[in-house]
Request: fold
Amino acid sequence: MDILSSLMDGFATALTPMNLLYALIGVILGTAVGVLPGIGPAMTVALLLPVATVLEPTSAFIMFAGIYYGGMYGGSTTSILLNTPGESSSVITAIEGNRMAKAGRAAQALATAAIGSFVAGTIGTTLLVVFTPIVVDFAVSLGSPSYFAIMILALLAVTAVLGESRLRGFASLGLGLAIGLVGIDSVTGQRRLTFGQPLLADGLDIVVIAVAIFAVGEALWVAAHLRRTPLQIIPVGRPWMGKQDWKRSWKPWLRGTAYGFPFGALPAGGAEIPTFLSYVTEKRLSKHPEEFGKGAIEGVAGPEAANNAAAAGTLTPMLALGLPTNATAAVMLAAFVQFGIQPGPLLFENEGPLVWALIASLFIGNTLLLLVNLPLAPLWAKLLRLPRPYLYAGILFFATLGAYSVNLQAFDLVILLVLGALGFMMRRFGLPVLPLILGVILGPRVEGQLRKTLQLSAGDVSGLWSEPIAIVVYIIVALVLVWPLLFKAWRRARPTRVAAAGPVTGGPVGDRSTADRSAAESPSVDSPTATRHRQADVSDGQENADAPKVTHVNHGQEKQ
Amino acid sequence: MTSLASRLKGRSELGVAALLGAAGALVLLDAARLVTPYSQSDPVGPKTVPIIVGALLLVCSVWLAVNVLRGGHGEAEGGEDIDLTHPADWKTILPLAGAFIANILLIDWAGWVISGTVLFWGSVWALGSRHYVRDGLISLALALLTFYGFYLGLGIPLPAGLLEGIL
Amino acid sequence: MRGLSALRVAAVAAGIALMASGCGATGGTKAGPATTGGNSGPVTGLRIMVPNTPGGGYDTTARAAAKVLEDEKLATNPEVFNLAGAGGTVGLARVVNEKGNGDLTMLMGLGVVGASYTNKSESKLTETTPLARLIEEPGAIMVSKDSPYKTIDDLMAAWKKDPSKVSVGGGSSPGGPDHLLPMQLAGAVGIDATKVNFVSYDGGGDLLPAILGNKLGFAASGAGEFLQQIKSGDIRVLATSGEKRLEGVDAPTLKESNIDLVFTNWRGIVAPPGISDADRDTLIATLEKMHASASWKEALKTHGWSDAFITGDEFKSFLTEQDKRVADVLTKLGLT
Reply:
């Protein structure tokens, strides 16, 4: 097998002590910058370019690959521990991951993130090796109509996470969409919601927003209600993942990979959307949906796998076609040029050994990251035992540092503060955060793809369904919309079969199977049966996970 | 008593409804001054989405106000470090925000080392730590470490401000 | 807690060690431009600002220039820093505000000219002190290999017949170089610029799949980013917009095809307004020496940039002319 022998040669090159050292440096550096919000692998690689030109191209790229993958790992660590997402692809991880950390299950969260990332990264890189030509042909065939359809599907998924009060969920979504509008309209070049400020012309960065609302908002909120009674040390709990954790994680890992890789390979895909889709899927399919919002391990396992698979997916078109699908890939392409190597369709032919060594080092880097991060997970978790003042001051300090260092402008810090205040307000009044983040991510994309589609079809509406993938996705959308209604009708026709229907849709049925558990914790929630069509604003029976706020149940201790 | 308390609480959440309404109005007003495109291949135009978003916000604003007045309320977020039995502790929030703002004001002029120290020191003080000297040293160490770390490691020169030439 | 305080002590110790090694880091940055004309010694304290993010086109050029300056001992420790935002106008505003500062320079290009209009920047490029134009890159009119258009004439005929049906893709937003090229091209062949169906993409990377997938009528962008795809035949170049043909690309120029347009995406260096004549001359002299060096020629070759070196007043009148041209196009489109 030609591929296999080339890969073996690649391993031979990548496993030399020198290159292993560079891989290690890259991995550590990548983790460090991934931890910091604002600075990411893209910027790091760009800043290191001049330094790296003195190295052998192979070694330099091995280091860059390490930085890239490391960035994904680092971003998850702070997401989980400090609610400070370091990368846009770690934003979703923060939601469940931080909850787990607060409940004393930080080590498990970190472990599932690390292992999931490893699994996804390895599978993703293997897919990269085997399927490159097919993936790339497919990726190129997708145009704006298909992307728009996918965005519609994603928007639909948002409705699944509006939280217990649909009204507040929509309000949050509206705010997110409004924030996403800030900037220059890509078609007509006009500025929207910039209030004459040139610094707002590029819009607000999702990481800055997420850090502001998650981290700064939380710091302000904690400041407002800091527990003055003797501090309870957060129990660190068991350092390793229990059997239940493994059982609940492995399928999300695989599903997350399935989401992440294609989106990473698609030019307009990105790593944020697959993490979100993975989250919603896991919530729907979970046997413990009430845990979502309080620290469900699937909510960490899935998205983490997704973002690492997306990282691998991104490299596929980059290496095969010279097609960058995100900023890091674009900078790596620039690096190729610096070395006098021309990226493009002929890269595999012209620079075979280099490319295969690079791919081999991806496997190695992935393994190194797992080996480095997994044992450290319990240690990182101890970070949470810092006295509160230091912990939150530290969060603010690093959030500020990260946000400032991107552009070295104090204005970014003003945004951090203003949005932090917004985050504070949202926590005070029970506005869910996730719809806002999704509004910021999805809003511009939905609008952009729609208008691009219409432009390309010269204003003809039929352009929306002019691509086969678009049609397929719309059918899926229709099915998703229609399914609950069909299901209800089917149920009404056969009432005795109710209990047998497992958590397939995860909707009203999912609750029933865990009704006893949730009823015990949340005396204030109505019984699930009657709630399906209640007044939507008070409580939605599907999402009663948020109900018992003050009586915080520690799931970590349940798991023996 | 309880009805007064709940009405007061309800009133504060009306602030959220007001905010949503203001945001919606802002978006719509901003959209109104946009010029429709110069090319007919873009039937959607730059105004459509802002109008939809603005409308959504206004609808939510009204709906929320109605909901609040009828007695509904959003659950404030709880957590390990959160003690919701007392109202918001402004004596903590304001110094914390103050430290943050001080950093913003000082960073370009006095440099990161000074402003970062102020930020961290002020934050830990606001959050309750009273070991002044120890905290001051830690703050200074953090600021210096990150200053050098960024410059030597990543080539990002954080502002040196007043300490230019000394560092 | 013991573990933590030990950790803290270790951190502080490490920090002190780091500081000791880093001491003097900021010492060298404010020494001022050394020489007053003449050939005595390299320039110190030179800072080149890039109004874009690291890894972008301006950034690459600036860092390449800085490297050559340092290697050829023309400047000591030149510092390249980024100040991105609003298409380059944030950097522009900074440069214009630092009146008289002889240390600071900014690397810019055609994109910044356009952005200064579309972003309604208060600072204008014509206020800066032009130093030198460094490189240029002609644009290319490209289609996918599956496209029905085989020659530039085919394309122009179809385009003139119904501009709205022939979509044009470019890697910049309105006002950017990839937008200006098709607009000027439309003007040159007699199409109303307001009827052009321009679809903006987020850079060459975003534009590439659209070209390869044959989603566009044609694409207008620099050929540099797509050389490999052109070589492999996945992208067909119908014409290039320079004075002469582009090396390695088998396509006629627009002029050869009887279209009266010469368009290049150029990059140059400017300095703040109000700097002393001595400073200006020193900087220009330094740049001239850089241009003459072998390592600069090497850099040009590596990156595929075309040499387009003009300095001082020649560059100034070029800037003014470009500024006017762009202003005209954008005003017609209502983008100013």
